[in-house]
Amino acid sequence: MAIGIVVIIALGVGTHIFEITMKAAATQASLSRKRMIVLGAVFGGIQMLLMLLGLFVTWIIEETCEMNMVNHIYRYAAILFLFILIVKSLYEGIHIKEFLECRAEPLSLNQWAMQAVRTGIEASVVGMSITYLNPDTLYDMVCVLCISILAAVGGLWYGYWSGVKGQRALNLSGAVLLGVAGVYMIIRQGTGI
Length: 193
Prior knowledge:
This protein is an all-alpha fold. Helix content is 81%, strand content 0%. It is built from seven helices and no strands. It has helices spanning 2-25, 33-64, 68-94, 109-118, 121-133, 137-162, 167-191. α1 runs parallel beside α6. The longest helix is centred in the first third of the chain and has 32 residues, at 33-64. The model has no long low-confidence stretch (mean pLDDT 82).
């Protein structure tokens, strides 16, 4: 069950990545397939690094803090952060801002990397959450990396060719997926599974 929850969390974050990259691609004057793949890999790789940061912070806290109370507080903080992401996705799904699609100069790799970092807080929260869901972190990393890259490339392709459409559905579906994972984490925390 935990492996499925990791996939659900990764898909929930993937919807956000898809939306961000869709908007970025809708403003590009030209975007080749090769460039889409490179930008998608960069975006997914940065998301992966931020997820690893969340995993690392969680591991450090568990290793250095022997007190059971500190670990419980951190677990509840991870759940709280996940629910903040859910509320944010719901809010963005209900209150859609108008997006002006105008073709501009291509983003440089540096600009693209900075955009990935700015929007990557979700990946750190995912890293924190995954630590409590599944001890097989290698699988988790591969799963999140693949979904992040596919979502980024898919968002770039869709945004470049179709423009910005379906924001509400993306945000609301991401909120539902993260909500399922959050409820599972609360149940697991309560039962001690």
